[in-house]
Specification:
Helix content is 71%, strand content 2%. With 265 residues, the chain is mainly alpha-helical. A two-stranded antiparallel sheet has the order 1-2. The protein starts with 12 loop residues before the first helix and ends with a helix.
Length: 265
C-alpha cells in the first residue's frame, strides 16, 4: 500500500496558473522602462523614445508599447502630452501619489485628526534627532530662513497655520530619511488643513491669544534650531517631542473627536 505521506501534492488550478503565468510582453517593457526611471537613467522632464524607437528597441508591436506606456501613466511615472511630437515625458511623483488614497483610508476607518497628530508624534522627533546628528548645515539654514522670513510673512498675511505646517514637513524632509518624509507627506494635507482651520478660528475669536501662539511657536522653533546647530540629537528629540505633544493638546482641545472625513469634506 502506498505511503500517504509520500503521495504527491497536487496544486489547484489557480495555484498552478499563478506559478507558471508568463508576464505579458507589455509588462516586461514597462518593467524595463520603470527600472531606467528608478535608477535615474531617465530623469524628471526627460522624454521617452518615440513609439517607433521603442518598437525597434524592444522588437514589439505598437499596441504593446502603448499598453506599457499606459501602465507607467497609471503609476504616475510618465505623462502623455496629447498632440505633442515628443511623446511621453518622465515625471517623478512625490508623496501626493499616495496621500489621497491614504486620506481616503483614514476617512473610511473613522480615524480622528488627533490620531494623525499622535502618529506624527512618533515620526517627527525621530527625524529631529537624525537631522541634529547627521543633517547638513544648509538644511538647518533653510529651517532658520523659514522661521525668520517665511513664518513672519505668512503670519502678517493671515496664513500662520500654513507656515507652521510647512515647517513641520520640511523638517522631516530635510532629515534625509525618505521613508519618514513619505509618511509625513502622506498626512500633510490633513495636518495643514487642521492647523489652518484652528489658526483662522483663533484669529477671529481671540486675536491676543493668536498673537501669543505665534510668539510661542517662533520661540520654540528658534530653540530647536539652536539644538540642531549644537548637534545635540537627544535634546532635539526631546524638544520636538514636547513641542508636538503640546501642540496637539492645544490645537485639538475640545476637538479630540474631529474626524478626518469631516475635516476634508
Amino acid at each position: 500500500m502506498a505511503d500517504n505521506a509520500m503521495a504527491p501534492v497536487f496544486l489547484t488550478r489557480v495555484d498552478a496558473e499563478r506559478q507558471i503565468r508568463t508576464p505579458k510582453t507589455a509588462e516586461l517593457v514597462s518593467r524595463k522602462l520603470r527600472s531606467l526611471i528608478v535608477r535615474g537613467e531617465l530623469g524628471a522632464g526627460d522624454s521617452l523614445p518615440t513609439e517607433a524607437e521603442l518598437m525597434e528597441l524592444f522588437a514589439v508591436s505598437r499596441p504593446t508599447i502603448r499598453e506599457a506606456i499606459r501602465v507607467l501613466e497609471a503609476e504616475r511615472l510618465v505623462e502623455m502630452r496629447r498632440g505633442s511630437r515628443t511623446g511621453a515625458k518622465v515625471c517623478i511623483p512625490g508623496p501626493e501619489i499616495v496621500a489621497r488614497p491614504a486620506s481616503l483610508l483614514l476617512e473610511l476607518s473613522g480615524a480622528t485628526v488627533a490620531d494623525v497628530y499622535r502618529a506624527l508624534e512618533a515620526v517627527e522627533p525621530v527625524a529631529a534627532r537624525i537631522l541634529a546628528e547627521e543633517g547638513a548645515e544648509d538644511a538647518v539654514d533653510e529651517l532658520e530662513r523659514i522661521v525668520d522670513e517665511v513664518v513672519p510673512a505668512e503670519y502678517a498675511s493671515g496664513h500662520f497655520g500654513r507656515a507652521a505646517a510647512h515647517f513641520h514637513l520640511r523638517m522631516v524632509q530635510l532629515s534625509g530619511v525618505a521613508t519618514l518624509a513619505l509618511i509625513s507627506g502622506m498626512v500633510y494635507e490633513i495636518f495643514e488643513r487642521n492647523h489652518v482651520a484652528f489658526a483662522e478660528e483663533r484669529l477671529v475669536a481671540d486675536r491676543a491669544r493668536h498673537e501669543e501662539n505665534y510668539r510661542l511657536f517662533v520661540r520654540s522653533q528658534r530653540r530647536f534650531i539652536k539644538l540642531l546647530r549644537a548637534r545635540d540629537g537627544d535634546a532635539a528629540f526631546a524638544h520636538w517631542r514636547d513641542h508636538m505633544v503640546t501642540a496637539r493638546r492645544f490645537v485639538m482641545a475640545d476637538r479630540e473627536d474631529l474626524l478626518v472625513r469631516d475635516l476634508l469634506d
